[in-house]
Amino acid sequence: MKFRNFGFLALTSIMLTAWISASVLAQRSRGVDGTGRGYTAGLSSGRQINHARQSSRALYSYTAPAAITAGVAANASVVHAEVIRPDVEVIGHNIAAAQAGIKVMKKEFPEEDIQKRISAIEKHLSEAATLQKAAHAECMRESPDGKMVMSCCNDLTKELEKARAEHAALMRHLEPAPLKPDEN
Fold first, then answer.
1. For 112-129, how does the pLDDT look when each residue is reduced to its tens digit (9 = 90+)?
2. 83, 122, 131, 173: most buried by Cβ count inside 10 Å?
3. 146, 79 contact by CB (below 8 A)
4. How far apart are CA 24 and CA 140, in angstroms?
5. Is the pLDDT of residue 87 over 80?
6. Which of 70, 56, 52, 64 shows the shortest CA–CA distance to 155?
7. How far is CA 13 from the centre of its chain?
8. 9-35: buried (b, 16+ CB within 10 Å) or exposed (e) per residue?
9. What are phi and psi of 119, to 5 degrees?
């Protein structure tokens, strides 16, 4: 290959790369900042909401048999504090981590419509945190009431599902727009 042909090929490659990059960069997503921090925090908080929700559902499943059979049989299942306490604490850590991610998003996205969506998520996470604290307080007792923990987990799961739905809608809104063919 001659040097002249190689130079033409290299110059063409550079120009093509610059042209494609310019069109990609021009199509930034709705609300995603240049660093991607807000969007990344959103992805992280979504995972934390899902982890808390899954743990809450599992804890509900564990406490349900004890609550259902309590008072029905002399040997009804017992809820063991040492078994459920770590799960309730993990739910609290997940909710706190989700709230931290949402705070980052709140700072990174000043748009009014995004702020409203974030406020709805914060409301559900705040209610979930309150329910988690009630369940944790019950778990700190030597002999926790299975019905009370089950009720808290039921309400907690509902709040986390609402937060999850709001969060998913927000992330769909923030998702980068698909690349469009360049119209020349």
1. 999 999 999 999 999 999
2. 131
3. yes
4. 54
5. yes
6. 56
7. 41
8. eeeeeeeeeeeeeeeeeeeeeebbeee
9. -60, -40
